[in-house]
Each structure stands twice: as C-alpha cells, then as structure tokens.
Amino acid sequence: MATNYDYDVLYLGAGHGTFDGAIPLAGTGKKVAVVEAEAIGGTCPNWGCNAKIALDAPVALTREQERIKDQLNGEQSTINWTANMSRKHSIIDVLPGAIEGMMKDAGIDVIKGYGKLTDAHTVEVDGEQKTADKIVIATGLTPHKLNIPGTELAHNSKDFLALTHLPKRITIVGGGYIAMEFATIANAAGAEVTVMLHSDVALRPFYQPFVKKVLVDLQRRGVHFVKNSNVRGFKKVDDALAVEYGEDDTLATDWILDATGRVPNVHGLGLEEVGVKFDERHGIDVNDHLQTSVENIYASGDVINSKQPKLTPTAIFETTYLTSLFSGQTTDPIDFPAVGTNAFTSPRISEAGVSVAEAEKDDNYKVVKADLSADWYYQVDNDSIAERALVFDKEGHLVGASEVSSHAVESINTLLPAIEFKYTKEQLGRIIQIFPSVASDVWATI
Ligand SMILES: Cc1cc2nc3c(=O)[nH]c(=O)nc-3n(C[C@H](O)[C@H](O)[C@H](O)COP(=O)(O)OP(=O)(O)OC[C@H]3O[C@@H](n4cnc5c(N)ncnc54)[C@H](O)[C@@H]3O)c2cc1C
Ligand SMILES: NC(=O)c1ccc[n+]([C@@H]2O[C@H](COP(=O)([O-])OP(=O)(O)OC[C@H]3O[C@@H](n4cnc5c(N)ncnc54)[C@H](O)[C@@H]3O)[C@@H](O)[C@H]2O)c1
C-alpha cells in the first residue's frame, strides 16, 4: 500500500473496463476504490450487450422457427414485446447489485457519485477528496446527439432498451451496430422501421458483400432504407413526429432513435486541468502501457483513443492487462490478439483478424470463399443466407475469417484460436471437435 494515499489504485467508472481487472487486483492485496456515477457494471450489462441480447433471444428463435416451418405444425410465433421487455428486466436488473457484491467481497471500496480529477493523485466525489497512487479512467462512451432542430425529440439506445410498448412506426438514424441490431429487433417484433443512412453504406467495418445480404433480407421483411438521407430536423406534428430529410422530404413517424454513434466521456473529468491529453471524438490518448500523458494516470476500455474495436472483450483485456502491470506480473506493453466482432443482426455477421476486403487487395493473402447454404450442416435448419470467407497468409496459416449466417458467432469464435496461435496442419489435426456441430464443420475447412 502506498502510505501517502487512501488507495493504491482508484478507478473512475465501474464498467467492464474496470471491474474485471479491479477485482483480481484487490485479490493481490492492493487497496482499490471504484467510483461510479450511474450504474455499477456500466453500459454492457445495463444498457448494452446483455440488455440487447436478452431482447434478441425471441428474434433468433422466431427466425429459426421460420426457417424450419415446413417441418413444424401450427402457427409461426410472434414476439410479445411487453413480456420480452419484462423478461429482460428480470435478468438484467440484478446485475449491478451482483457486480457491486463481487467488488465489495474482494475488499474494494465502491463509491457512488461523479468523480472529477483535482490533481494527478486526487479525485473529488460529492465534495470529498479521495487520493490514490494510480488512477484509471474508464468512463466509457455516451450516445452522440445530432445537432439539428428538434434533436430533443429523438431517443437513444438506452431508451430503446427500456421501451415498455413498441411504437407502431420507428425511424432509426444511422447505419452502425446499434442502428442495424435495433432495426432487426423492432422489425421482428412488428414495428414499421425506417433506417436513415448517412451514406449508401451500413455496418462500414464489416465485409460489404455480407452486409448487403443482411440489408436485402431486412428490406424483404419490410424495413425501409433511405440512403444519403441528410436528416435535417425533427418536428412534433399533432400526436406524431416528422423527420425532415433530403432536400425537402418529410417522413411521419412515432418514435425516433438517434443511433449516430457514441462519443467519449471526457468532459467534466478535470482532464485539461490535470494535463491528461485527449481527442474530443476518439478519446484519451494512451501509450502502449495504457498510460496517459500524466505518468500515474492510466485509461482503459471504450474511453481510450485506440484502433481496437470498442467492445466489452477489448475493455476486459485492457483492464486485465492493467492488473498484471500494477501487480508486477508484467512490464511488457499491451499486445492485443485478434478481436472477434459481430453484428447481432439476423443472420449475424461475424469477423476476426485480417479483413477480407484488405486481403482481397493484397497478394500476400489468399481468400477462400464458401457458399454455406450448400453445406449439409447449414441445410439442417435451412440457413440459406450463409457465406464464409477465410483469409490465409503465404504460409497457409489462417489469419482472418468472416461469416454471414445464423451460426456465424459460433464459427468465428471457434476459429479464433487458430487465427491467434497460427496452428500448423499437425496442430489443427490434434483438435477433435464434437460432431455434428458448427465447430466441427468450420474446423474441417482450415
Ligand atoms: C446498445 C449497445 C450494445 C452493445 N453491444 C455489444 C455487444 O453485443 N458486444 C460487445 O462486445 N460490446 C457491445 N457494446 C459495447 C460495450 O457495451 C462496451 O464496449 C463496454 O461496455 C465498454 O466498457 P467500459 O467500462 O469501457 O465503459 P462503460 O461500460 O460505458 O462504463 C463506463 C462507466 O463510467 C461511468 N462514468 C462516466 N463518467 C464518470 C465519472 N466522472 N465518475 C464516475 N463514473 C463515471 C459511467 O456511468 C459508466 O458506468 C454495446 C454497446 C451499446 C451501447
Ligand atoms: N454487437 C456489438 O458488438 C455492438 C453493438 C452495439 C454497439 N457496439 C459498440 O458501440 C459503438 C457505437 O455503436 P453505434 O451504432 O452508435 O455507432 P457506429 O459508429 O457503429 O455507427 C454510427 C452510425 O451513425 C452514422 N451517422 C453518423 N452521423 C450521422 C448523421 N448525421 N446522419 C445519419 N447517420 C449518421 C454513421 O454513418 C454510422 O453508420 C460501436 O462502435 C461498438 O463499439 C457494439
């Protein structure tokens, strides 16, 4: 314990960028505090991944039922929105308490309130000064809000994940993860959905031929896409809303989701005063030890200005690295593995490693594509929108993979060890997967 300070390490924010590392750090005997302004657990459990996947479960199930309807008797099931939302609450609302309990059991002081740096070793919470040898800023991101007339009439992802009744007409502005995942859920649950794209591209980081397949399917299901939409403003008209877009077009709607991105929580933290450098749009600058421009202040998770995808597993990897650093288990720089990423549309699009688009432009790689709708295992549940692209280097090692299908998440997760550890043919042959399964199916192709 650093004798001059209240704590060895104080974390600002209690999301995955903190608690997955803070708990084992406290286990090493360090004195640890975590300051949280809103909800313990942060975005992912409360208004991100966990909340979203809870609402998505019946979507995936009804899609599977639809695919195998010829083998079933009876009606196609529909989604009961209110019951689905109430189920989401029953499994999500306990998480902050459970995470707080784990932190307290590990001996962490959990401090509720908004934290602000007053000097390099001091954080003020509700007028009280807490000092620490090291401080970790893990304050995450917050929804971007369009700067247009009527922006206050639009809602954000957090509001969507708490909707008690599904509006009849929903307009979604944006074409990223949140826009496409929530368009999928709302459409499957029966809403009339319009997606206002900024350009003519959605899910930009993903392999576009696969994205197109998802868009075509959503269109077939009634989702309306407006490309190059130029959304200019929102208005209240009687009991409804109007979205003003294009040159002078108007769309009537009942509920608007502003899904135009997420921006770093860097304001009001005292960063300028203490000398922590950051970029308004991309977050806090860190070196390869996640150290900011102030020696004893580190950053972790979504708030970092980094090329890594801003995802829960990345945040966990970063805070776990800091635990190793602070407890003396490593002095090495952080070394990111290939990070798997997925758009939870239906079908899913998953990828990891070298992107197919990049590999197609580079002679050092070979891309092998497969139409999975012709694969017997994908035919079992009629997974007809199903394609995979694998990227190999000159030595024949798998270095990247992308898949669109209902089973894409399992496929890409299965391939991650082969990508990360560059298994030889002999090593690949030593793995015997359970058969029949997605894992054994994809493993046989590498
Ligand atoms: C709708 C949605 C769906 C998502 N789905 C997925 C998914 O399927 N898979 C995936 O991997 N990722 C997903 N993500 C991303 C994932 O949620 C984030 O990458 C992850 O939560 C980042 O963790 P973090 O700890 O860095 O930030 P956060 O979880 O955002 O935690 C930051 C915390 O800091 C607190 N805070 C901020 N300022 C202060 C302050 N001054 N004092 C005290 N506390 C403060 C905030 O209240 C917050 O609790 C999703 C995100 C959203 C919004
Ligand atoms: N499945 C997952 O892992 C998952 C799911 C949801 C969110 N997330 C994380 O949360 C982050 C934020 O998600 P997001 O969807 O808000 O952001 P995003 O960066 O993925 O997408 C933002 C979208 O808004 C569009 N946009 C920007 N300005 C616009 C304008 N003026 N008019 C219309 N469109 C505009 C962009 O073109 C883009 O399509 C993601 O980058 C990801 O890190 C991950």
UniProtKB/TrEMBL annotation:
It comes from the Bacteria. NAD(+) binds at residues 174-181, 261. Keywords: Disulfide bond, FAD, Flavoprotein, NAD, Nucleotide-binding, Oxidoreductase, Redox-active center. GO terms for molecular function: flavin adenine dinucleotide binding; glutathione-disulfide reductase (NADPH) activity. Residues 343-441 form the Pyridine nucleotide-disulphide oxidoreductase dimerisation domain. FAD binds at residues 115, 302. One of its GO terms (biological process) is cellular response to oxidative stress. Disulfide bonds join 44-49. GO terms for cellular component: cytosol. Binds 1 FAD per subunit. Belongs to the class-I pyridine nucleotide-disulfide oxidoreductase family. This is NAD(P)/FAD-dependent oxidoreductase. It comes from Nicoliella spurrieriana.
